[in-house]
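Example (one chain per record):
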Amino acid sequence: VQLQASGGGWVQPGGSLRLSCAASGRIFSINVMGWYRQTPGKQRELVASITSGDRINYADSVKGRFTISRDNAKKTGYLQMNSLKPEDTAVYYCNADGTYDSGPYGRPFNNWGQGTQVTVSS
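Predicted structure:
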């Protein structure tokens, strides 16, 4: 199972970006998809997560500005980021856990995508 994150870049304060995370491989199901971010010298922190039942959780710092969603048919998760602030600057990582096809039985996975840099500055 591989996760491919994309959509990062540079944007001015107040701008928007949309991150995508595409999962590939012999995946039976994806339970939780999440977005995390990390800045130098700090621990990776949860930004938002969404379960297969569309239960959503946001970090307080992004509530009202970020929206997480997923397309189960495409095995892809999204993070729409609006009203971006300089403090949102970080490397963003996607994470997914679920079950993949491994012989006669499914096996659990919990994988990370490569990071994508988001820079918010004027």
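Caption: The two ends are 38 Å apart (CA to CA).
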